[in-house]
Write a sequence for this structure.
C-alpha cells in the first residue's frame, strides 16, 4: 500500500503542477483582488476531484470509457462552458479602455462570494471529461486487491485534494503578492486576455480531441 500511495502521489502531483484551466482561474480570481472568491474556486475544484474519486470508486466513471454517448455529452457540455467562460472574460476585456473599471472582476460584496467561486470551480472540474477518464483509468491501479475499494479510492482522492490545496495556496500567495501591479487597468486587461485565451484554447482543444 505504501508503494502504491507514493506512486499515486507522484502521478497526481505532476498532474496538479501541469498548467491548465484550474490554475488559470485561481490566478485570475486572486490577482484581481477577490481572495474569498479565489478560495471558493479552489474548494469547488477540490469538490469536483472528490466526486470523481467517489464515482470512480463506485465504478460509475467507467461509463465514460465504455459509452461514447456519455463521454460526448459531457465533452460538449465542457466545451460550451469553457468557451462561454473564456469568451465572456475576453469580451469584457476588449470593451474596456484606459482607466475603465474591470466589470468582469467582482467589485461588490454580493459578487465577491465564496459560494459563487465554489460553483465556478465545481463546474469547471466536473465538466472536464478527461478528468473522469483519468480517474477511471488510473485510480483503480493504485487500489490494492484486498483493500476496501470505496474507502481506499476516496482516500487517494483526498491525497490528490491535499496536493491541490497546497498548490492553490502557492498560486494565491503569488497572485496576492503582485496584486498592486494587477490592479493597474493595463495589467488587468492583459491578465483577462491571457486567461480568456487560455480558457477558449482549452475549450477548442477539448472540442477537437478524439
Amino acid at each position: 500500500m505504501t508503494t502504491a500511495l507514493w506512486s499515486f502521489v507522484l502521478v497526481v502531483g505532476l498532474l496538479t503542477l501541469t498548467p491548465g484551466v484550474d490554475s488559470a482561474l485561481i490566478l485570475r480570481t486572486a490577482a484581481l483582488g477577490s481572495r474569498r472568491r479565489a478560495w471558493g474556486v479552489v474548494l469547488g475544484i477540490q469538490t469536483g476531484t472528490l466526486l470523481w474519486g467517489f464515482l470512480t470508486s463506485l465504478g460509475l466513471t467507467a461509463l465514460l470509457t465504455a459509452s461514447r454517448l456519455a463521454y460526448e455529452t459531457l465533452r460538449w457540455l465542457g466545451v460550451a462552458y469553457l468557451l462561454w467562460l473564456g469568451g465572456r472574460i475576453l469580451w469584457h476585456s476588449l470593451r474596456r479602455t484606459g482607466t475603465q473599471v474591470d466589470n468582469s472582476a467582482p467589485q461588490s460584496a454580493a459578487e465577491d462570494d465564496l459560494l459563487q467561486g465554489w460553483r465556478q470551480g465545481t463546474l469547471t472540474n466536473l465538466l472536464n471529461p478527461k478528468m473522469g477518464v483519468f480517474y477511471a483509468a488510473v485510480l483503480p491501479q493504485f487500489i490494492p486487491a484486498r483493500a476496501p475499494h470505496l474507502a481506499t479510492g476516496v482516500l487517494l482522492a483526498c491525497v490528490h485534494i491535499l496536493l491541490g490545496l497546497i498548490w492553490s495556496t502557492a498560486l494565491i500567495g503569488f497572485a496576492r503578492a503582485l496584486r498592486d501591479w494587477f490592479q493597474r487597468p493595463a495589467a488587468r486587461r492583459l491578465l483577462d486576455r491571457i486567461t480568456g485565451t487560455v480558457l477558449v484554447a482549452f475549450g477548442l482543444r477539448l472540442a477537437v480531441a478524439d
